[in-house]
Amino acid sequence: MKVLITGGSGFIGTNIHEFIGTHYPNYQLINVDIVKPKVNFSHSAWEECDILNKEKLESIFEKHQPNCVIHFAAETSCEPNLVLKDYEVNTQGSQNVFEIASNTKSVKTLIHTSTQFVNQYDFPLKDFFAYRPHTVYGESKIVSEKLLLENKYEFNWIIVRPTNVWGKWHLRYPQEFWKVLYEGKYIHPNNRGVVRSYGYVENICEQVIHFISNAEKLNGEVFYVGDEPVALYDWVNAFSLALKGREVRTVPKQLVYLLGLIGDVLKFFGIKFPITTSRYRSMTTSNPAPMEKTFKEVGNPKVSLQEGVNKTSEWLKVEIYD
């Protein structure tokens, strides 16, 4: 099996390289990314390429003749000043990947990575193709999903929508949330009833590999990938206990909101602050993703919350904070 991974040097891409190398040693991987890999995996070849460069991307597909494509490459920023044009890699880039894959006879399967942000309002979500995005990033991913829905490409395709994925090699958390927590500076609003959707990255990898193995049966389906929705306090507290050996400090949510307002002002002047009103809304608003369909198909995640927290915390202590 030859698997071409766009964005394979990123967070999930790096983890799926490790996961496949551990569990599927006969797979050969081709990492197409503009960024050098974090780890030199023996079963992977790196091709430096921007997926907006269609001519070069075509030459890579022709050279390697992959059987499967996992499309991770994306612009994921949710900065409020961005417009749809800033997400060309998600729109035109995805179109390039789809068209080239369709014209490459060896490609039988394509896994397209979208986002839960395509609809952040209609919960519980009954129609997976109902769209109500709350960010331009979500809008750009709707464009890419519709490319698959509205065109007859010559491969079996499955759309995956990751929840809030976490684990080692995360791009932001080691220097943001986990760092603030590790340094003893984190405070949490005293509302313990907030439920959010998270996904430990090893469980995400296993779900993606299952979809590859069952692509013909699941052609045209959409799956949210992640773990069972969890109380946000429990997720945060598990990391506090693992990193600091104590329960997370809680304060009235009104105080957190006030700090968020201060953070907004500081951000306006280019000064970083751990809490903004956007972060406050995430800490105080429930948003469980519809995971039932995924668990029915794949089974329950194998790595528990506590096991994932332990693995990630150990990696942070040894590789990042030591």
Radius of gyration from CA coordinates: 20 Å
- Anisotropy-based shape: globular
Number of helices, where a helix is a run of at least 4 consecutive DSSP H or I residues:
12
Write the element-wise H/E pattern from the N-terminal end onward. Answer: EHEEHEHEHEEHEEEHHEEHEHHHH
Brief description of this entry?
The protein has 322 residues and is of the alpha/beta class. It is built from 12 helices and 13 strands.
Please outline the helices and strands:
Layout: E1 2-6, H1 11-23, E2 28-33, E3 44-48, H2 54-64, E4 68-71, H3 88-103, E5 109-113, H4 136-150, E6 156-162, E7 164-166, H5 177-182, E8 188-189, E9 195-196, E10 198-200, H6 201-213, H7 215-218, E11 221-225, E12 230-231, H8 232-244, E13 250-251, H9 253-268, H10 277-284, H11 292-298, H12 305-320
Parallel strand pairs: 1-2, 1-4, 2-3, 4-5, 5-6, 6-11, 7-10, 8-13
Antiparallel strand pairs: 9-12
Helix pairs in contact: 1-6, 2-3, 3-4, 8-12, 9-10
Describe the structure.
The chain is 43% helix and 16% strand. The chain has helices at residues 11-23, 54-64, 88-103, 136-150, 177-182, 201-213, 215-218, 232-244, 253-268, 277-284, 292-298, 305-320, and strands spanning 2-6, 28-33, 44-48, 68-71, 109-113, 156-162, 164-166, 188-189, 195-196, 198-200, 221-225, 230-231, 250-251. A 7-stranded parallel sheet has the order 3-2-1-4-5-6-11, sandwiched between helices. The chain is globular. The two termini are 38 Å apart.
Give me some keywords for this one.
single chain; 322 residues; alpha/beta; 7-stranded parallel beta sheet; two-stranded parallel sheet
